[in-house]
UniProtKB/TrEMBL annotation:
<dbReference type="InterPro" id="IPR045851">
    <property type="entry name" value="AMP-bd_C_sf"/>
</dbReference>
<dbReference type="InterPro" id="IPR000873">
    <property type="entry name" value="AMP-dep_synth/lig_dom"/>
</dbReference>
<dbReference type="Pfam" id="PF00501">
    <property type="entry name" value="AMP-binding"/>
</dbReference>
<dbReference type="InterPro" id="IPR011047">
    <property type="entry name" value="Quinoprotein_ADH-like_sf"/>
</dbReference>
<dbReference type="InterPro" id="IPR015943">
    <property type="entry name" value="WD40/YVTN_repeat-like_dom_sf"/>
</dbReference>
<dbReference type="InterPro" id="IPR052091">
    <property type="entry name" value="Beta-ala_Activ/Resist"/>
</dbReference>
<feature type="domain" description="AMP-dependent synthetase/ligase">
    <location>
        <begin position="147"/>
        <end position="335"/>
    </location>
</feature>
<protein>
    <recommendedName>
        <fullName>AMP-dependent synthetase/ligase domain-containing protein</fullName>
    </recommendedName>
</protein>
<dbReference type="InterPro" id="IPR042099">
    <property type="entry name" value="ANL_N_sf"/>
</dbReference>
<dbReference type="GO" id="GO:0043041">
    <property type="term" value="P:amino acid activation for nonribosomal peptide biosynthetic process"/>
</dbReference>
<dbReference type="InterPro" id="IPR018391">
    <property type="entry name" value="PQQ_b-propeller_rpt"/>
</dbReference>
């Protein structure tokens, strides 16, 4: 590796003024010391010589213990990367994960002498650095095997460091970050922010979060001063604020939540964002930009700090775009202007160098140029390796999904809308949690807010914090809640939360982001089985204006609607496990709170819980496919398996809740076909049909089609071949006899196949001695094909043209086929010749697959009804 190449971090170091202060460290406000650039470079060279003098075998990544003082970290980083290796910061939370990761193969670590007995095996070198004794040690890890394939692909180390994602969207991933990925960020930001040797950059971001690396190298590359503080000082917000203000800090980066968590709006207004502040730049990133009105209140009118909304993902470390926010104090209280301010604040702004943005349609993954879609960030050079990926196998450009929904406006500008998972289904309709949050932020006393949908209880919770002056104006939370509810009623009823709650502060994670796990715990509904009346009253007050101690208030008079009545009744039923059949009628008849409360309480003695939630298994995204139940003769246990849009397949052993999760590269909508030895066959949105081991994740084989695969693969009666359809308009027959997925044949029907194929076994067909299958297509056609010559070929027996699209899977019996069409028509056809036998019209559209039992038919409709139909015996016996 060429260490003098411009794409290497070490090349960015500014050694022009060695007498300048490189690090200014504070143990406390009155206890500090300075380290100049001469000392940094001297120790860095010493470390490089130590590392280069030792044969470190295949180890590319060197660990840095979190117990090493912060002011020593930059020098250690420079020493490691100047030797041609990469560093990994080992926090207490991530240490086990990182040390036991075979892709990193961490065999050596720097740590303080006091901690060396706890982790090391052999001391390589002990030395003094910035008055601290540091030990370089080999780690005892005899049980780990390194992936030689990965090592052999990187004889020159492309990587600068490794870091974990926050895990806020699932299991944390380990990202190996290349020099090329981070260097362009440093150069761009140094230029955009006009950083110079006179700048003092606060190093407050945890080293587990990659913006911390930006802070270090922005300072070193500009020849400025990096200001570090002790953990004790970080934990004293007021003292820290005074220090940053008094010591004339010019640059701070933070997440919005951490900024608001540490300091109140008035305190910021009089210090860092006050009239006499020396702060030139405030970077806010890692989360959605805060309420613009909050920023206006914390920033003095005569303050000239430049505030930026910066955006990026760890998978392409670190930042991808930047937008400078300019505020207009004169129009802040106008709703229309406020909406424009939100749009301006949420624009992603300038795309940084060597970075590509791509927006895909939310439904079909096609790239769009205008409208709403899912954002992907890519690059030809800023490429990082994630988890088990082999860096040399990543062909540029490499794009990573952000999980964020954006809108491209008519000018081509990208506007952040929210996380993809902020869209939830409530009462069968989609709602966007960020729209609810945005609406609440229009109230001028709201500091911050966050909405959580609790899937286990189907409840919508809205948490918020208020500005300090609001608390002083009113100590009565009910008054605040009344104002909020009055404001929320401007939204459609479907978006009204079940619960709203005022918090003192939002708890933040190690990375400085709002801790969603804490909010989910707070959203867990309490058990009210012993006091139904109080619980009913709390639901009422969460939906309607609160009139303190007035039980005579009436439902309709206070703004009650049929939807609110349904929500109150449904909520009470969900928690109590029983129906309250008269409640909706009483509410709509304008009964009083007291009357409705007494009715719900009178039913208390007859409560019987009839269903119990045993387990929840989070698959990260929505689940469209039906779960597959299966068991083997050799094993008495029953298992269930299902896939989700995240690509995760979860298999659960029902008797003991033992769980296995494996992952495919793209979303899964189909159900899983189970064959022998825990092998599952399932289609994926990447166009492949996979045969995967459901416990280990080993892919036995995969077969490529040319579009997404949504339908369930089905077996022939001899269990040697499978059949499935793809959105590429083809039907495929694969052999699983030799466990290789070999294609026997395919044919083009020129139509999308959404519903599952249905096989016809010879035991059901008296006149034929071979198997066949039925296909129903999105275009409304139904085909019957029969196999000949031992599955080597097939023939078209008949084709039926229906009036409407078909999404439901056909049902076949011994004599007929039942087809449910999108327009609500159920149509029976003769199985042998396709002749139309009978038609029945449902009251709404139909996407539900019908089920037939004896002479009963069960099917659901979009008119909210489950239909149970009975056929006469003539249909069941009819033959030709």
């Amino acid at each position: 590796m060429d260490l003098h190449n411009k794409s290497n971090l070490i090349h960015l170091c500014n050694w022009n003024n060695l007498e300048n202060v490189a690090i200014e460290h504070y143990h406390s406000i009155n206890n500090s010391f300075l380290i100049n650039y001469f000392t940094i470079r001297k120790v860095q060279r010493k470390l490089r010589n130590i590392l280069n003098s030792i044969e470190l075998s295949s180890s590319q990544f060197i660990g840095i213990s979190s117990n090493i003082p912060t002011f020593c970290i930059p020098t250690l980083i420079l020493g490691i990367i100047s030797s041609g290796r990469a560093f990994v910061y080992l926090s207490e939370e991530s240490q086990h994960l990182l040390l036991n990761n075979s892709n990193l193969n961490i065999q050596y670590i720097f740590l303080p002498q006091d901690f060396s007995k706890n982790i090391g095996d052999k001391v390589i070198k002990k030395f003094i650095m910035h008055k601290k004794t540091i030990v370089f040690m080999r780690i005892s890890k005899n049980n780990l095997q390194y992936h030689q394939e990965i090592n052999s692909q990187n004889t020159d180390n492309d990587f600068a460091y490794a870091i974990t994602t926050s895990g806020s969207t699932g299991v944390p991933s380990i990202v190996r970050v290349t020099h090329a990925s981070i260097v362009s960020n440093i150069l761009d930001l140094k230029r955009i922010l006009n950083l110079k040797s006179t700048d003092k950059i606060a190093h407050l971001t945890p080293l587990t979060f990659d913006p911390s690396i930006i802070e270090i190298f922005l300072s070193i590359s500009s020849g400025g001063t990096l200001v570090t503080v002790s953990d004790n000082l970080k934990n004293c917000p007021h003292e820290l604020l005074m220090l940053l203000h008094d010591k004339r800090i010019t640059f701070i980066s933070s997440t919005p939540s951490l900024l608001l968590h540490r300091w109140s709006v008035p305190n910021l207004n009089s210090t860092l964002l006050g009239k006499d502040s020396h702060l030139r730049v405030l970077l806010l990133g890692g989360e959605p930009f805060p309420n613009p009105r909050t920023i206006l209140k914390m920033k003095h009118r005569e303050n000239y700090t430049r505030i930026f909304n910066i955006y990026g993902i760890t998978e392409i470390s670190c930042w991808a775009s930047i937008n400078e926010i300019n505020f207009n104090y004169n129009t802040a209280n106008d709703d229309n202007d406020f909406n424009n301010m939100i749009v301006q604040c949420n624009k992603l702004g300038i795309i940084l160098s060597a970075t590509l943005f791509q927006v895909k349609d939310l439904n079909d993954d096609g790239i769009i140029k205008e409208g709403k879609g899912l954002l992907y960030i890519g690059s030809n050079t800023r490429i990082c390796a994630i988890d088990n990926e082999i860096f040399s196998n990543l062909n540029p450009p490499v794009f990573r999904c952000t999980g964020d929904v954006v809108t491209i406006d008519k000018n081509g500008e990208l506007i952040f809308e929210g996380r993809q998972d902020c869209c939830v289904k409530r009462f069968g309709k989609k709602i966007y949690l960020n729209q609810l949050e945005c609406h609440l932020k229009k109230l001028n006393f709201i500091e911050d807010c966050h909405a959580i949908f609790n899937y286990s209880t189907s409840t919508l919770h809205l948490f918020f914090t208020v500005l300090n002056n609001t608390k002083q104006l009113s100590n009565d939370e009910n008054i605040i809640l009344n104002v909020i509810w009055s404001h929320l009623r401007k939204l459609p009823p479907i978006m009204h939360p079940d619960y709203i709650r005022c918090l003192e502060k939002f708890k933040v994670t190690e990375h400085g982001k709002i801790c969603k796990d804490t909010l989910r715990k707070l959203s867990a509904v309490k058990e009210y089985h012993n006091d139904i009346g109080n619980y009913f009253e709390s639901i009422w007050k969460n939906h309607l204006p609160i009139i303190i101690d007035d039980k005579t208030t009436r439902f309709v008079d206070t703004g009650g609607t049929s939807i609110i009545a349904l929500e109150i009744s449904s909520k009470l039923t969900d928690i109590m496990g029983k129906d309250f059949p008269l409640l909706i009628g009483m509410l709509l008849e304008n009964k009083t709170l007291s009357e409705c409360r007494n009715y719900s309480s009178s039913s208390q003695l007859s409560i019987l819980k009839n269903i119990e939630l045993l387990h929840l298994h989070n698959l990260s995204k929505c689940i469209d496919g039906s779960p597959t139940l299966f068991k083997y003769i050799s094993n008495d246990d029953t298992f269930v398996s299902v896939g989700s849009h995240s690509g995760i397949i979860c298999t659960v052993q029902i008797s003991n809740n033992k769980t296995w999760k494996v992952k495919l590269p793209d979303r899964i909508e189909a159900s899983i076909l189970i064959i022998d030895d825990f092998k599952g066959i399932v289609g994926c949105h990447d166009g492949f049909l996979y045969c995967i081991h459901l416990m280990t994740g080993e892919i036995h084989w995969k077969f490529q089609t040319y579009n997404i695969v949504k339908c369930l693969a089905v077996l022939c009666s001899q269990r040697q071949n499978i059949f499935f359809g793809s959105y590429d308009h083809y039907i495929y027959c694969l052999s699983i006899k030799k466990s290789n997925g070999e294609k026997l044949w395919d044919f083009n029907i020129s139509e999308h196949v959404f519903s599952d194929l249905v096989t016809i076994n010879n035991k059901n067909v008296q006149k034929d001695n071979y198997d066949g299958f039925i296909i129903a297509t999105k275009s409304g056609n139904v085909y019957r094909y029969d196999f000949i010559n031992d599955y080597v070929d097939r023939k078209l027996t008949f084709k039926i043209n229906c009036k409407s699209s078909i999404f439901a899977s056909p049902w076949i019996d011994e004599k007929f086929i039942l087809i449910a069409q999108e327009n609500g028509e159920l149509q029976f056809f003769n199985l042998n010749n396709g002749e139309s036998l009978l038609t029945f019209k449902l009251g709404g559209e139909c996407f539900s697959s019908p089920v037939f039992h004896q002479n009963f038919i069960f099917v659901g409709s979009r008119d909210n009804n489950l239909y149970i139909l009975k056929t006469d015996s003539e249909l069941c016996q009819r033959d030709t």
